[in-house]
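ok trying again, last paste got cut off:
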Amino acid sequence: MIRKAKFIIVGLVCFLIGKAAVGQQFPLTNHYLFNPYSLSPTFAGSKGAGEFFFNYRKDWLNFNPAPETFRFNTSFHVGNNMYLGAEAFLDKVDIFERFKGSLSYTYRLQMARSQFLHFGIWGSAYQNTISLDNIHGNLDDPLFRNLDQLSKLTYNAGFSLIYFNQNFNVGFGMPTLLRTKDAYVMESQGNFAFEQEFQFHISNTFDLSTDVQLMPFVVVRRTSNQPTIIDVSASFIFGERFWLSGLYRNNQMISLGVGGELFNTMNLNYSYEVGIGGIHYRSGGTHEITLGFRFGGYTDGDVREKKQPKQKNKKYMLHDYQQLYEQKYRRD
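nice, full thing came through this time. structure:
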């Protein structure tokens, strides 16, 4: 029984490593198309003064229990073109849980007319937890004795740069800046094993008509010692309030999504992901739903371009004033 219990743990760890190999080190989300902060905290301030989003994702429905991810992120304006943000997620796979909490800082710099550069940095704390009380094995095993769980806390950091020019943006960053030296050594004793991760994205929004827009989006993720993950997506936006999206990921997965702005500041988005080959083909699909709120516009402290009244309007107003003054003088 002791050996069986240990094999359960080793098998679980192998499963998690395999899951990371096709989905990077941490759980992915397809909803960065309308919640870009979930792709990079440096997007803070790109949509307005503040926002917060709640996300739920359930992977591989044919597995029992299926992996689940709960995510929350927010960002808000703090003055002088600066934004603060926070993110937390809980990823659950049977007896294994991974928790992340992070804080971010973003600075918005105007480079030229309608051109901006965002620079963001963030720090994160991660905690691994294995619930031993749910393992079916010999409770006298020294590994389990007097314990109901194994838990370990560790830290990391990241940064990125994003260039904006009206509806176009392109960015590069390292979501995971620090590499764990003993990433593949069992003696790490539960430490969260990190590999350096590089991320590149490019996107633009095209006006197809007065009410329809097309937003293609490409994301490339490269993690050391793991396959490169490439997302290619397109979203059709109707009246700037409703959208349909499609996404292809090169690990043989496609996703279809629908969403919209329901009550001015409230947004809702749903997507269904299905595998078209490989391990994802028999996974049973993935559901993901996000509820978001955006609040506030840009303040006078922001460097966003402001429209100035045309000079001819000022002349016209002065001319009208002179006519009124002359009429009043003649009556007197």
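cool. The two ends are 110 Å apart (CA to CA). The mean pLDDT is 80.
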